[in-house]
Amino acid sequence: GSSLEKCDFETDLCQALQEVNLHPGWIRRNGRSGAGPPYSDRSGNDTTYFLSLSSEMKSSSATLRTNVFLPTDKEHVCQITFHYWISQSGALMVGLQKHSEDAFEIIWHDSREMQNQWKANTITINSTENFEV
């Protein structure tokens, strides 16, 4: 069966993201926080929450890690849909780390400058072993 998990950061981090895996630099905020754009979520609501890089992190990077997913097969596919916003000249990358490998492999990235709009993307992951994203 398919287990569809939705996460909107309204009350906490998602189940897929663990507190210990929230790298310093990520903050949960909304459009009213005064931390700069975006000033609303993807549907134009300024009171709903999203994750954002704190302004002190402008020139460095920060990571979000999921907890461990089980291997995929024909019945159990892993598909992740996410909404994102790039302001200034940032880049967003999604990496896959299989448990037998030390390094993670970049499976998607977007780095166009000054988009200043919400975009959506869906990635499908196939892995014969346990993995993190």
From TrEMBL:
GO CC, alphabetical: membrane
Residue stretches making up the MAM domain: 5-133
InterPro entries to which the protein is assigned, alphabetical: ConA-like_dom_sf, MAM_dom
Name this protein carries in UniProt: MALR1 protein
